[in-house]
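The data layer described in this paper is built around a simple, fixed record for each protein. Such a record has a labelled line for the sequence and another for the backbone structure tokens. For reference, a complete record is included directly beneath this paragraph.
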Amino acid sequence: MSHRIGNVLIFLAVLYASIAFAFFPRWTVDDAYIIFRYAENFSSHGELTWNVGVGPVEGYTGVVLPVLLAAGDSLGISPFVLSDCVGIASFFAGFLFLFLLFRLFRIDRVVTGAVLLLYATLPVFVTHATSGLETMLFVGSVSASLFFFARFLLAPVVSWKKFIALPLSLLIVSLARPEGVALAGIFFLGGGLFCYRYHRDQLAKYLGVFFAACIVPAVAYCIWR
């Protein structure tokens, strides 16, 4: 019975979010136009800067969204449309990975449904998904990182094919918003301590994969910018 109630709550959460994105008013916040300008300059002139031909000014919060919008602009996709698509997709990605996380820990389905309903009806999430900002991209990647980190810790034997998803998701977190760097650092240290205690023979491989998939690309971006 509780399983059925939980499924109903999850269905209602998805239904509410779908209706909200289809019919609720939406607007692009003013800060998003800053991101759009960086994306346009990067797409048209190859410079991730505010004014082309002038010294670099880093006025964007994270680099992931401007680069995605620049890629879309080069294909003729409006930043208004693409930013909405990224925001809504990130909203549902966060929803999905939160569901998978609860299932991984075998949380009661009613509790899962109640939390997901709260997530789906949280006004700040619904509005930010179509605001043109990177907020939901960050939320979705954090949710994914939490799931991949939990799956890594709960695995009786480290599966490196599954593990690679963790540093990649943390790379997105780090480049989506600056505070993601702190989260990535905590997960990196936590995973390293876990390997040291329970899979010491694989610690070197853990460090190698994490450096190659997350740390080196992040440092390369910092040097390039």
